[in-house]
Amino acid sequence: MAAILGLDDDVVKAVCAEAAENEVLEAVNFNSPGQVVIAGNKAAVERGMALAKAKGAKRALPLPVSVPSHCALMQPAADRLAQYLETVSVVRPKVPVLQNADVASFDGPAMIKAALVKQLHRPVRWVETIAHMAQDGVQLAAECGPGKVLVGLNKRIAAEMKYQALVNKASIEELLINIKQ
After folding, report:
1. Which residue in 30, 58, 91, 135 has a CA-CA distance of 20 to 30 Å to 11?
2. Can you tell me the distance from the alpha carbon of 133 to that of 147, in angstroms, rounded to the nearest whole number?
């Protein structure tokens, strides 16, 4: 996987098509305007990085990951997940869960399972997901995890929303105060 910075989404998709050379290379994370992650076979990713730079990318950075997430190479894992989910009971959620591969929420157990499987081998449509949340009137989003990467990306997508990274106890307490206001 590699992050491509400074190219339009369509240019990155074209780079992937050109650099694939009969291997897998796909645009898989549409993180923010001008930031797209590509994934696929290692050699194809390297060709994609070089071609992206030649097409004017500001940066093309390899990502230190162990799997090519969200691309066709993950189909075997998705198939195994689908088999496993057949044994799992899923109930209708009490709050909507926006799936980032479809930019939709589902309430039926079969659709929820299908969406979870799809997220392993299909692109993350993060820009559309955050824009959808903003259009639906979401005013505050919390990032759960060790860093603040999504907060930065989200501000570039929907600046009208407020974002809070939950990185420690104080930030969680701050979020709870903001929710009550």
Report:
1. 135
2. 21
